Write the structure tokens for this entry.
Amino acid sequence: MQTGSEVIKPDYSYVIIYLTMFTGIITHLGKVQKKSESELTIKTDTELVKKLTKGTSIAIDGICLTVVSKKADIFSINFMPETAKKTNIQYFTTGTEINLELPATVDTLFSGHIVQGHIDETGKITSIVEEGNSRIFSFTISKELNKYIVEKGSIAVNGISLTVISISKAGFTVGIIPHTWRYTMLHAAKVDDVVNLEVDVLAKYIEKLIQHK
């Protein structure tokens, strides 16, 4: 903007981007303390709980949910019947270990990929095979979702940003390095466990753009 000979630069410091998203880099683990038909109480690190306030979003095994209360090293969230039906929350019991991630901010190091916290479907672990210092996990995936994943592409499994190694008609594999194995719930995972899957949202946008050409 220019007034006479004076050039006035716009001030964008007041602009706030109100978009909840995650990167798929798990920062903390939690354990289910109590579960009712609509509320989940989770025990975790006190430093994480200090960052939470009522109304804060948090990813729980990749599901974007809202904090309703907190105390010391405990916090609670509410969930709808639809959320339980479409995610692995329906299988949570006391002691279940879960992945936790706070939303990304402007200061977040973006080292994963865009994860919305909107679960597309659940899949099952079909095998866990040790390979050198890593483990190869195989998961089921539906035909409808299979089209959105590519080899060396990204997918979120229980909120963890992972790279696809191979794809079949009914499933896919990923490699888990020691760090990811140790610092996520995968070290407690077993064959037949149900996991939350979220494909890369960019693939969906590309599909829609092509369809409407």
User: Anything to note?
Assistant: Confidence is low (pLDDT under 50) at residues 11-18. Helices lie at 46-50, 81-86, 143-146, 178-183, 201-211. The longest strand covers residues 121-131. The longest helix spans residues 201-211.
